[in-house]
Known about the structure:
heterotrimer; B: alpha+beta; D-Maltodextrin-Binding Protein, domain 2; 3-stranded antiparallel β-sheet; 17 strands; C: mainly alpha; MetI-like fold; 15 helices; disordered N terminus
Amino acid sequence: MSNSVIGSKKKRMTKKTLIYLILIGGSLIILSPVWWMIATSLKTPQEIAQYPPSFWPDSFRFSNYLETWQTAPFTRWTLNTLLISALSTIGSVLANAFIAYGFAVIKFKGRNLLFGIVMATMLIPGFVTLVPQYIIFAKIGWVNTYLPLIVPSFLGSAFFIFLIRQFMRTIPKDMVEAAKMDGANHFQIWWQIILPQIKPALITVAIFSFNGSWNDLLGPLLYLNDENLYTLQIGLQTFKGTVSTQWNYLMAMSTTVLLPIILLFFYFQRYFIEGSNLTGGQKF
Amino acid sequence: MKKWLLIVCAGLLALLSACSSGSADNTNAEGKVELDFWTFWGSETRRPMIEKLIEDFNNSQDEIVVKHTYVPWGDIWTKNLAAIAAGDPPDVIVNDIRTVKIRASNNQVEDISKWVDDDLKNSFYPHLWDAVTYKDKAYALPFTTDTRMLFYNKDAFREAGLDPEKPPRTWKELKEYSDKLTVKNEDGGYKQVGYYPNWGNFTTHDWMINADDGKGLMEGGEPTINTPAKKEAIQWMYDWKQELGSEAVQNMKAEFGNEQQDPFISGKVAMWAEIGTFYKQLEEFGGDLDYGVATMPAYNEDTKPWSTGGGFVMEIPKGAKNPEASMKFIKYLTDVEAQTYWGENNFDNIANKEATKQITENLDGKGAEIFQKSMESLEYTYLSITPPEYPEYENLVNPLIDDALNGKISVEEALDQAQKDVENSKQ
Amino acid sequence: MSGIKEHNVAISTTQRKSVHKSKSSDWTVRKPKMSKLSLKENIWGYIFIAPWIIGFLGLTLGPLLFSLVTSFTDYNVTSQMNFTGFDNYKRMFTVDPLFWTSLYNTVYFVVFSVPLTTAGAVIVAMLLNQKMKGIKVFRTIYYLPAVLSGVAVYFLWMQLLSPSTGLVNTVLAWFGIDGPAWLFEPEWTKPALVMMKMWSVGGGMLLYLAVMQGVPKAMYEAAELDGAGSIRKFFHITLPMITPIIFFDMVTSTIGAFQIFQEAYVMTDSGEGGPSNSLLFYNLHMWNNAFEIFNMGYASAMAWVLFIIVMILTFLHFKFSKKWVYYESGDHK
């Protein structure tokens, strides 16, 4: 008895070590490009132009970061980007969870056809609708405002509707039925029963959509004409010149731009852990 | 939950303020005409220069106020197109000189002929003027241009026993020089390569034009791709590649493809084709590199040292609200004073002849030497204009040339096929 | 709430039963007599999808139909739009050699990238779905590539893939492999891009991680009591439970892979197509037509051909999904 316990403990230890080794190996692969980015952001332009490129910067020029920040109104652009991303993330999570519930849980006439259309909207490349869509927004006077960048998030997107629908369908139907028996309406079921169950999925949508609008270049670029309204991604482009690129600045800014998303991701992860701890005892 | 509400409210407020600032009228409070001017000059170096020019213009008169908006390179034209389609384009935009005719044929630019007289026309280089006209009407004014030249490393010349004051003049010399300048490592790799025709800023198309005595891939609006001289140019490149070893060539091209390391500055390649503004990079990163500059070598003693170039124009997008005021601003930008300022500070070749003359008088030292050379080179610079009938010819020709250089098909076949494909693609 | 949770404990038995139960209560069965209940359900259904309907009618439908109409014209975005019948479609299939090149390149990319990235994401998610010290840090690291975007990433990859000094070939050299010139050799450009995609499986990983949180611990515990090892647990519990998301991932990444654009656009000097046009993907060719030479009519036609191709594939995905996707809710439509 005690022997087998020790044996399985040992087994678990070797398994853990193996997983750590794999994870560390993978991390190195992933981090190496990131290291190039950071290293370049700390070099002088002269060092960057040297061949072969140096792995370790000769001198760590942290002042690059400060200089980069001062080349343009980056503080303002950061706030702009935060505003757009936060609002469209809220919209995205609420709207898509709402719409997906309709498709996943309620049985209504024409559901399959409409869901087919939802899927179909994903299949047409955005280029060909880019100009007509721009014209629509121009006609309703939304060009040079944040509305074209935010309002569509509140109207759902096929990708997220499909995603949340898939998650909702992993929830046992009996739960919905039981709640209905108790006299709950769909709105209550959605808010009180379904949403808490798919928290990890909602967090995922939040991360994806924040990430998406934080990194969006074409949208802001098309719809914003006033430089005061610009976003970070447009700001990043200023370092890429027609003749030469300011690599150290470009990389410094790219690194800076990464930070908020990484922090957000790190923070949101607690919901993942929580979710997994709770589901074991709670859901069943 | 409360926190969320707060964020949403704050956001909505910010939105409203954004909306209100969005409504811009064409005339401002003081009754001046406001012009929206889009450029892709947002970098630390160029932005202050264009903004200085705008400020000078705004201060020089009291009818027009120009507002500058930076839009990133490349995307600027997508945005412009959408804005034209929506009927709300900027008043003035910087655009590519090689495609003015295409935009004119697609009705994307305003015809400015009525404000153009002979004096204005004659103030620009003729080949640039030709590029901005379509069916005898003018659609833009040329702003800048460029021309490729041969930069060479004088120290490397000395080490190889070559006279640093005598750059190669013909293909034959170029090859001889290159052979002398090519140095191998002990392990068989290259320590330094003299020259390779498909690196740098002067590649397949350019050498084909150079070989064909300044005749482009499109002449009179029709493809002239499979001429004997152009075939010879590709064959010449192919042979050169075989001699250096195609793997080595590919590797080095890949090394420099990321645009970060510069092979000329880091001494890996002794002769390198680039446009005049390369001087700015050499100044900044080149340290004490001793280099010279020459016009591109000619095919032989009897042909001219043909180079190629591009450039930018100022134009008024179709549907802009104040074409007359816009034209005034464009005229100012392409006139002597503004052009002189731009050329001196950016080292772009400029479109205005008089201004070019002034700059050569004002400059001194290395800068003057390079600018002088670029003027010489401009005399034999071919501007590859994309003809409206064959807008995608480059996309058809390039892969076939790649295949020929990779030895997949013969040069003969490649260019004949390219000629045929382009002919078929007529729109 | 607690009542609901309790009566759900034995997923494998009650749930499978409910599959049959729900079949009988399907609205299609009761369609003829539209009861008060189903009317109410209909109304609720439309209330819930109302935001999407507004967006679809207001922002999407018009442009979609417009692009369909323009595919039969010589529309050039700004001034002309003459009806040309099926000319654009004819040209695509008979005259334009680049159409076939771009379709081939795209299909190649789809075939390799979709299965590889899906499998990669599941594996990484499995590894990261552990209770271990530092797992949060690892998760963040693995998600990082999905966060990185824009020009900087592609230039980083050019650096990494550079034949003699790049990291990829340096590592290959340790194993005695002479790496290719990647982005500069027509045969290796697409594999290089697939590799890039593999690098950023973090997005997919996050999806799987999220769905794995919903797999009840009790099931694993029960399996452990039966003496099941990790591999059996994976194939008998985890895998079936995450099939809805695998399905989602396959469908969306197929759609996404068909529309690959950004990577190729940046890496090939603004859409030139790379060596021997080996990176001229479908969307890149479409982009060139639409915004470089203003042949929007042709681009729209291309878009609709792609639409049909991907729609058929998506349809097949959905059809076959019934065979392997396991829905807890017991609903297979």
